[in-house]
Amino acid sequence: MSTRYERGLARLAEIDRIQIERILTSLEDIAPDFGRYLVEFAFGDIYTRPGLDLKSREIATVAALTALGALPQLKAHIHGALEVGCRREEIVEVIMQMAVYAGFPAALNAFTAAKEVFAERSKRGTVSCRLNAAIPASDSVSPT
Amino acid sequence: MSTRYERGLARLAEIDRIQIERILTSLEDIAPDFGRYLVEFAFGDIYTRPGLDLKSREIATVAALTALGALPQLKAHIHGALEVGCRREEIVEVIMQMAVYAGFPAALNAFTAAKEVFAERSKRGTVSCRLNAAIPASDSVSPT
Amino acid sequence: MSTRYERGLARLAEIDRIQIERILTSLEDIAPDFGRYLVEFAFGDIYTRPGLDLKSREIATVAALTALGALPQLKAHIHGALEVGCRREEIVEVIMQMAVYAGFPAALNAFTAAKEVFAERSKRGTVSCRLNAAIPASDSVSPT
Amino acid sequence: MSTRYERGLARLAEIDRIQIERILTSLEDIAPDFGRYLVEFAFGDIYTRPGLDLKSREIATVAALTALGALPQLKAHIHGALEVGCRREEIVEVIMQMAVYAGFPAALNAFTAAKEVFAERSKRGTVSCRLNAAIPASDSVSPT
Amino acid sequence: MSTRYERGLARLAEIDRIQIERILTSLEDIAPDFGRYLVEFAFGDIYTRPGLDLKSREIATVAALTALGALPQLKAHIHGALEVGCRREEIVEVIMQMAVYAGFPAALNAFTAAKEVFAERSKRGTVSCRLNAAIPASDSVSPT
Amino acid sequence: MSTRYERGLARLAEIDRIQIERILTSLEDIAPDFGRYLVEFAFGDIYTRPGLDLKSREIATVAALTALGALPQLKAHIHGALEVGCRREEIVEVIMQMAVYAGFPAALNAFTAAKEVFAERSKRGTVSCRLNAAIPASDSVSPT
Asked: How many helices (H) and strands (E) does chain A have?
């Protein structure tokens, strides 16, 4: 039984169930343990730590992923940031500010990613992904 | 007369006067205009925008500079983050979280930088740099 | 009224109107101010400075974007480099040289981008984008 | 006559003929000399050196390309690693380990690339690319 | 009691006790939990996995740290690679090969780091760090 | 006898003898072949190609090394750029422009490097390194 895994999944349910299930599913047939580490270490160990609120954690992550140009993960965390209470405007400001530290191309590519996320969310309605969190997560994705 | 420059300097006085004056002084004999752009664009245009509070801006910057490994600038902004109200613990959490996105070496090198900043501040007392902001900034550093 | 914006747009008209209008249009509904900063700071402040000719500026930019792997922006600036007088051969040489500094993958990915630009330009004829510069730019894109 | 080129092509035939011919063909009309340097320097000079076995060389390359996010080249070298005797499991382990050094996004993007390579190879059967090496390589691709 | 931590420390004792104790000690007064995650996740979870031998793991790590320019960590892992059975020549070959993927500067800076490690080891004699592993590690460094 | 090596050394004598000899000497006891590849491939193959003048090549290199943060190599190539006819002002402009593409920290760190080079050259007089090129280079550094 994996307490860290459960703690990670619970934290993820607060952030964005849809995104993480996509990632875990895609890892299932190539590196299922890696999906488990992602849940356990990133979300069970780090994101559950006290000392920094969840919204600030997502702001830090959106900033870093913009600077690093990790666009698929940036899109997942823009969803996540919105779920934990960031306004679109705040995300736009974080990305814009990255032009100062990582250059204009990094910011421009992140804006393209953000537009896709905003459009996807507008299309499916403004219903939060967290509403789905009523369905227990541990059924569909479980560690090996 | 440069309104953007003045607005930038005023914003910088809220963040950390000592750090920016060091940078502007070091640029004076090689690229003084670049110091001006830094004040005008980064601090006059971006950091004065509404839509994201100053503390969140510094969290985003500490995250990005950790991920990019830009250590001299990271040290300046750890000072800045503390000046605008971040606790040391929050900075430690942001750096730690970057291990997930940019790898453990990026976080380890940032912790080395943070230790130096914390030690420097403990040595000179916990007096905030902003106390010095009573002395007008525009006297010592001015655009050409 | 924004002198820096106008100066930036004028400079951009010398480089490549089509590319920048695409970028500004794509930013309009997410971060229009960022489009303005791009014109004002990058093109109004930096690209209009004396001390380095425009062709050398584009060579520096093609080199950096190749090294950084910023492919959408690289494509825009290969267009730009050709518009300000670089020959295709010069662009190929800059990209090739980057294998020494950023590795062969960076150069290979940049060659893929360059091939797309060269093909696009051959298809639409060798007419320079600057010919379109007769139509005033300020009508379609203007700062808020 | 180019001994380094021939030595490079021979080494490449041991690794993966299909991948390198794709690359050389794509360079033919834009930078054929660059294809020659790639064969001569990377494969004729470096990959033929004693002191490190070919399998370890491919492990090093898969690690670096994962860390750098150079996905098209990573895919080519996952093919190559499998051709020189790496098991899929070993490639998965190398990618997973990169999460520690370059962050989880770098590893996740590399897993997406690895899945595509594994699927492509399963579809065309498990026949090694090296079987094709019976057909002399020097006919189709030759240095200028 | 932390089994992952103990497993990680045991693995580290096979690699290089001296290096990791330096890192854990430096983290003690700023982020002791981060030292624990490093031992638990990197060495307890990842480096103890079957499917890739320890020597290949160190080759992958030396390659990645060279490509990323993470020099303090590269030096620690050159020590580690030598401890788990890599010859100096193999490390030199890995670094050299990185010129192809990350450029000559990355390889040159890594050679500077490797020279320092080789010199340090020659000065203190060729005695392996692992000899010290007889002294139990858990006394001096323990998780909170 | 190595024609590519000789061609490379001759090209290097036009750029900056002092810098390259430092690099070759530092490689002698760890990876002498790597020094040879650097001369043969980077300077014998690439820098001797027609299609781009030497001054533009150095501008491209200064841009890329600024963007990549490869400071030791940047310093060597600022020397080189000055030797082949770039004015200090042009180098300052290239570095400044990189703030747009790689962020302000990259430019700031490059300015620190440039200041050191300018100071070193002022101290030893403005005598060009190329004057030393009268002393044949092949005596002190030769391929194995």
From this structure: 7, 0
- Among chain C residues, the shortest Cα distance to F100 is held by C42
Name every chain B residue with its beta carbon within 8 A of the beta carbon of F105.
Answer: 65, 68, 70, 72-73
Token pair for B73: 């600038």
DSSP D41: I
- Could you give the count of Cα atoms lying within 13 Å of A73 in the half-sphere of its Cβ? 24
Q: Strand, helix or coil at C136?
A: coil
Interface confidence, given as ipTM, is 0.88
pLDDT digit string, tens, across residues D44-76: 999 999 999 999 999 999 999 999 999 999 999
Q: Which residues of C109-144 are buried (b: 16+ CB within 10 A; e: fewer)?
A: bbbebbbebbeebeeeeeeebeeebeeebeeebebe
Q: Describe the crossing of helices A3-15 and A71-83 by its angle, rounded to 10 degrees.
A: 80
Q: Which chain E residues in 92-111 lie under 8 Å from chain F, judged by CB atoms? A: 92, 95-96, 99, 103-109, 111
Select the residue from A36, A45, A48, A68 to test the E interface by mutation, using most E Cβ atoms within 10 A. A45
Tally Cβ neighbours within 10 Å of residue A120: 12
Go through A77-88 and write b for each residue having 16 or more CB atoms within 10 A of its CB, e for each that does not: bbbbbbbbebeb
Contacts of D41 in chain F (CB under 8 A): 37, 41, 45
Phi-psi region of F103 (alpha: psi -120 to 50; beta: other; left: phi over 0): left
pLDDT digits (tens, 9 = 90+) for C66-124: 999 999 999 999 999 999 999 999 999 999 999 999 999 999 999 999 999 999 999 98
Residue of A27, A55, A53, A66 whose CA lies nearest to A144? A27
CA distance linking residue E105 with residue F77, whole number of Å:
11
- Name the neighbours of D, counting chains with at least 3 Cβ pairs within 8 A: A, B, C, E, F
Shortest CA gap A71–chain B (Å): 12
Sort out which chain D residues have CB atoms less than 8 A from F49's CB and list them.
Answer: 33
With a cut of 60, say whether residue A40 has pLDDT above it. Answer: yes
Q: What's the rounded Cα separation, in Å, for the pair D103 and E42? A: 12
Residue B97 to residue A52, Cβ atoms within 8 A: yes
What gap in Å lies between CA C40 and CA F124, rounded to an integer? 40
Name the closest residue on chain C to residue E105, using Cα atoms. C101
Query: Which residue has tokens 């380095």?
Result: C52
Task: Count C/E contacts: CB-CB distance under 8 Å.
Answer: 18
Q: Given CA atoms B140, B141, B142, C3 in this order, what sign does their dihedral have?
A: negative
Task: Judge whether A57 and B97 are in contact, CB under 8 Å.
Answer: yes
Q: Which chains touch F (3 or more CB pairs under 8 A)?
A: A, B, C, D, E
Q: pLDDT at residue E100 above 80?
A: yes
Non-local (6+) Cβ contacts of B118 within 8 A are: B88, E30
Q: Which of C62, C66, C77, C94 to mutate to test the interface with F (most CBs of F within 10 A)?
A: C94
CB contact under 8 A, D101 and B100: no
Q: For chain C, say whether B41 makes contact (Cβ under 8 Å).
A: yes
Neighbour tally for B29: CB within 10 Å: 10
d(CA F103, CA E86): 39
Alpha-carbon distance E31 to E139, whole Å?
A: 19
- Helical ranges in chain F per DSSP H: 3-15, 17-27, 32-37, 54-68, 71-83, 88-102, 104-123
Contacts (Cβ under 8 Å, ≥6 apart) of F35? F23, F24, F27, F28, F141
Question: In this complex, do C37 and B45 lie within 8 Å of one another by their Cβ atoms?
Answer: yes
Total number of residues shown for chain D:
144
Residues 51-80 of A with CB under 8 A from D: 65, 68-70, 72-73
Question: Which region, left, alpha or beta, applies to residue C85 given φ > 0 means left and ψ of -120 to 50 means alpha?
Answer: left
